[in-house]
């Protein structure tokens, strides 16, 4: 049985992006961060929305419009397509475990 | 900030299916179970694949072909479309918190 909380004994220096399942316009991936942050002055600008939940650790996500979110385990965000954002902080101990779903998504009613 | 681990003070008797985000052929939902199981002799038979992770509690999922999975927090499964399956057990304390993504998915390489 695969488990999202299972990590390699020693983490690489770079963030790990691990695709778990995919479809035509859908990608489910686990992301493991341990102290990395988006380089200064850079923004993610993605063609698809991203629904992301932090499952372990603590992280800070900032939007270009100034909104700033401190995420703790279980906290989730729907980042709209082309909403410029960056990751300003990820904890090292424990490492951050994220689950991200990339797809053309909007909030469910 | 919305949090997957946040539950209402008292849970309803039925399982809760809460859509969180959706797209044309994608649905992300949280499921909260607390002791319910699929009624005897019944099987889920879904037109789309379901990627599902158990985030809290313990649960048992059985496939019609006999495979049986005991899930603990972090364990995940990709249930193919039309793969008949049932939930044979869900813990009450703590309640089971699942995150499910319904879409046309296959395992990522």
UniProtKB/TrEMBL annotation, chains A, B:
Stated name of the protein: Cupin domain-containing protein
Annotated InterPro entries: Cupin_2, RmlC-like_jellyroll, RmlC_Cupin_sf
Short name of one Pfam family: Cupin_2
Top-level taxonomy: Bacteria, Bacillati, Cyanobacteriota, Cyanophyceae, Nodosilineales
Stored CDD domains: cupin_reut_a1446 (cd06981)
Species per Swiss-Prot/TrEMBL record: Almyronema epifaneia S1
Domain of life: Bacteria
Domain Cupin type-2: 42-101
């Amino acid at each position: 049985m695969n488990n999202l909380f299972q990590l390699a004994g020693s983490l690489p220096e770079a963030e790990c992006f691990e695709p778990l399942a995919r479809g035509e316009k859908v990608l489910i991936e686990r992301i493991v961060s341990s102290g990395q942050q988006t380089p200064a002055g850079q923004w993610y600008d993605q063609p698809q929305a991203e629904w992301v939940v932090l499952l372990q650790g603590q992280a800070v996500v900032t939007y270009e419009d100034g909104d700033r979110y401190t995420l703790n385990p279980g906290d989730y965000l729907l980042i709209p397509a082309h909403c410029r954002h960056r990751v300003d902080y990820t904890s090292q101990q424990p490492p951050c475990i994220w689950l991200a779903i990339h797809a053309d998504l909007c909030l469910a009613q």
